[in-house]
Write a structure and sequence with these properties.
Organism: Dyella tabacisoli
Order of helices and strands: HHHHEEHEEHHEEEHEEEEEEEEEEEE
Protein name: DUF239 domain-containing protein
Largest sheet: 16 strands, mixed
Helix content: 10-25%
Keywords: Signal
Structural class: alpha+beta
Length: about 475
């Protein structure tokens, strides 16, 4: 214990200059933020006109961009035009510094590029819970966090320009894909990949190729044939110091098939300044059909996910984040295979909303057309020595309100669709930087007051992970 405390103090001392630098940067940003709020609102029509008239030289020669060539820029421009050409948008707004456009459901990329003529029917909300487990903690001593049922605070339904952030019926809020964002990456494929080096793999199967950056994990896993899983994720927003080469930090679940080809459906929160442009953790989804090779993208940035409910902002920030020793926030996320589609549910332990689905067709003839084979839960970061914090930035052993957690972990077995508590194995590839505590049993009193199977995770990152 003493060595752990000493390491935490050392890590905190190492990171103190970075934290202070971040605070000064934030303090200095307020006048800039006020100035930004005074700029002209960019309507969807103006955005499209700007995209049509944009020239590669303005982006390739900009020292703040990474787009590698005029040809790479033109690929990006054509992608944006392909996504939006013919889309009819009557309402747009700003959230977290990003534009969102209210896009008709059948005009979003997943529907248009998938050739959908109608939106699939959602599954019934699952009403079955895992059976009672005897023994262990009955849950009475565990805290009840604050569930995130909306990414908007009560006073955030109107943006700074006076535009409603509530999309009208039949439309969904789609985070605007801009050339400014795409040009922060060398190529369009780099933009689609889960990390800049393209080295992402399933954590328990990771073999890293030579690379300037690397993925680090703290996670739990279970090999089991299933048709989906449920995970309630503690919500944090750890600071990612891009000036030191840190790239992103996230917490998520992976729903995976790995033979004969690796395929995934993923959901969680992520702080990725290089993608989103600021330090706020975002709700994200991701998928791949071929082991992160030529397929996969975040959120709604390619023709994959089909969103059907406008109450959640995929790629958008949250109104509240957990604080060390203070209020704890969480949201429930689940994937569930229904009539050939992987449905995403978001909400709280007392109830979820079906937000949308990955059509089974995006997985081709692969294993996820019928079921998944592996479940994983935990955190991931990318850096190049140093690495950013994961979770809250505290080691898992610090427990409630200091370490991050994931709880209420269960799955539906295949082919019977029975709800079963997870039986997880722990993996800590970088224990000096990131750890797992648990899994534990936290009691069961459905539908709300229980922790079920849970664990703590995270750590400060730093050097030598």
């Amino acid at each position: 214990m003493k060595s752990t405390i000493n390491y935490q103090l050392r890590s905190c001392n190492e990171r103190l200059p970075w934290v202070l630098g971040a605070l000064f940067a934030l303090a200095g940003s307020f006048p800039l933020a006020a100035q930004a709020n005074q700029t002209q609102f960019v309507s969807f029509q103006q955005f499209m006109e700007n995209t049509h008239s944009s020239h590669a030289t303005n982006f390739v020669l900009d020292g703040n961009n990474k787009v590698k060539s005029e040809a790479a820029f033109e690929d990006m421009r054509q992608h944006v035009l392909h996504v939006y050409e013919g889309v009819q948008v009557q309402q747009s707004f700003v959230l977290g510094g990003d534009y969102f456009d209210c896009v008709p459901m059948l005009q979003q990329p997943g529907a248009r590029q998938g050739g959908l003529k109608a939106i699939a029917a959602p599954p019934p909300v699952p009403t079955t819970f895992p059976s009672v487990r005897i023994g262990g903690n009955d849950g009475t001593g565990l805290k009840q966090p604050q569930a995130v049922t909306s990414q908007l605070a009560a006073n955030e339904k109107i943006d700074e320009y006076g535009h409603s952030r509530i999309c009208s019926e039949g439309t969904i809020p789609m985070r605007r894909i801009t050339l400014k964002e795409l040009s922060r990456f060398p190529t369009l494929r780099d933009y689609f990949q889960k990390a800049p080096d393209g080295a992402e793999h399933v954590p328990s199967k990771t073999v890293y190729p030579p690379s300037a950056v690397a993925h680090k994990y703290a996670y739990t896993y279970q090999y089991v044939n299933n048709t989906g899983q449920t995970d309630t994720i503690n919500l944090w927003s750890p600071y990612v110091d891009t000036g030191l080469g840190e790239i992103f930090s996230l917490a998520q679940s992976w729903t995976i098939a790995y033979t004969p080809v690796l395929q995934t459906a993923e959901v969680g929160w992520q702080n990725y300044p290089g993608l989103y442009g600021n330090q706020s953790a975002r709700l994200f989804i991701y998928w791949t059909a071929d082991g992160y090779g030529s397929t996969g993208c975040y959120n709604l940035s390619c023709g994959a996910f089909v969103q059907v409910n406008g109450s959640w902002f995929i790629g958008g920030p949250f109104a509240n984040y957990s604080t060390v020793g203070g209020a704890q926030y969480e949201f429930t996320a689940q994937f569930y295979l229904f009539q050939g589609n992987w449905w995403l549910g978001l909400g709280s332990p007392s109830g979820i909303t079906w937000v949308g689905y990955y059509p089974g067709s995006i997985y081709g003839s692969g294993p996820m057309r019928t079921n998944a084979q592996l479940l994983e839960f935990g955190s991931e970061s990318v850096g190049s020595n140093p690495w950013p914090p994961e979770g809250s930035g505290y080691y898992a052993s610090n427990g409630w309100s200091y370490a991050a957690y994931q709880r209420q972990l269960y799955y539906w077995d295949y082919p019977n669709a029975n709800a079963i508590w997870d039986s997880l194995t722990v993996a800590q590839p970088s224990p000096s930087c990131y750890t797992i505590a648990g899994p534990y049993w936290g009691g069961y009193t459905p539908p709300t007051n229980y922790w079920g199977t849970y664990f703590y995770f995270g750590g400060p990152g730093g050097y030598g992970c």
